[in-house]
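Reopening: TIGR03826 family flagellar region protein still failing for me.
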Amino acid sequence: MFVSIANCKRCGRIYNRISRDICPACIKQEDEMLIEIRRYLKQHPEASITDVSEGTGVEYTILVEMIRDGRLMIHNHPNLKYPCERCGMPTQSGRLCAKCAKELAQELKGVRAQLIEKNGDEKSGKGYYSR
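Support: Ran it again with your exact input. Result attached.
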């Protein structure tokens, strides 16, 4: 059996890494932050991400991380926007804005077409079948 030991991304403590890159103590602290954020958003549904950070004391970067990871749902909060990782424009979902996601998909489609053209038919590649 392999035990994964890691340093917590937030506090630096050593812990047995199971699923996340923060230790159990920081996970508990983050869960408490989420409760506070949700309470604040219930009272201030039009708040911006900066307002939420200032109103709850939760760091801006932690808020963005929670949204990107899907732990904080913002579909009913139109002003909770954060910068796209590619262009910096405001977005409300994922790591990229809609424009960058579309551009990236087009680029990948082009690269795929080039690879198919270079290597021949896409279904003629080597592969294995197992039962």
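The chain is about 45% helix and 10% strand. If you still see a failure, please send the error message rather than a screenshot.
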